[in-house]
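Anyone able to model this chain together with pyridoxal-5'-phosphate?
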Amino acid sequence: MTTTPATAVPFFPPDLFEADRAELIGLVREVGLDQEQRFILGARTAAFEELLRADLGAADVVACSSGTAALSLVLRAMDLGPGDEVIVPAFGCAPLASSVVTVGATPVFADIRPDTMTMDPDDAERLVTERTRAVMPAHMFSVMADMPRFAELARRHGLRLPEDSAVAQGGVLRGVPAGLWGEAGVYSFVQVKTCGMPGEGGVVITRDPALGERVRMLRNHGQPPGRRFVHHAVGVNSRFDEIQAAFQTHRYAGLPARLARRAEIAAYYTERFTPLADRGVTPPPPDPDGRCFYVYTVLADAREALAAHLAEHGVAAHVYYPRPLPAHRAFAPYAPPGARWPRAEEAARRHLALPVHHLLTDAQVQRVADLVCAFAAGHG
Ligand SMILES: Cc1ncc(COP(=O)(O)O)c(C=O)c1O
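re: yes, here you go
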């Protein structure tokens, strides 16, 4: 009998920053010994913001303490608050709902599309009331939400359009980068994201300079840029670290290559898995536009058995959201009594994310695909 090491194919690479170790240590020294002794919101943060702004063609980019903080700053900057309803997807990560609650507004949950697992624009529109102030689509796993439809919906109903693009840095739909379809979007830099870093951080990106200016003020206790101890709004502490800014600037040039490797792995998986749809394993929709392979997720009828089969053979897979958001105790108070989100429930039951990071070898990728195919052959 052959035994397989438990970590044969890790879900996240344990050596993600190994190639940049010397650079990182050098930056700790450089920033630590800099005569200026400025460790947050200094020239390195400004340079990183400008690098992203110019690359994306945004009006402004504002670095802050996390993707979650970025979402809350966007909603605050839009003056959303008590009495306002914000339509969010029923399937996704907690900040989608908690950021709305944090500003005192009410999340209203819309169901998702069964194939893309992103918010369904038709269901979102059905939920618009006279209290609705915003609709907040989110990109999910590898697929960007139907932003053209949401932009049109927001325009028609006079709604604000924050975009949760936390997982989609590098995604482009119809030529527009993720984060710039909405009035403001966000990226998360927590290590697992496409442009992750060794620590917490995020940015707000916007095509609206006035909104950018307001976010910039709110992230630093409501102080206008360059003026300390002068508060024009009730803000928060959501500042960005200088070492991380320099490190992100250093790694940014490698982002397209890392994304291309992820897309290559995803294309191989999709080619192998497309014939499995009638055997209980469905890959994400193949359209290459609006894709960003933060995570590669299949829908599996026998999800637990597939995950166990992969684990037995040393492949780590991951269930992200085991239940829809309104099914959590935290968000149940915002769910109308008796309401159901059948497609979100189904996605919660069936989704399984496979390793797709850029450091996987071809042999590891083939091994994952072989194992999934063998499982489907035995269970279809
Ligand atoms: C869709 C989405 N929005 C927001 C966030 C929050 O980002 P952060 O972890 O940087 O706070 C995440 C994090 O995974 C996310 O997946």
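Residues 255-273 form the longest helix (19 residues).
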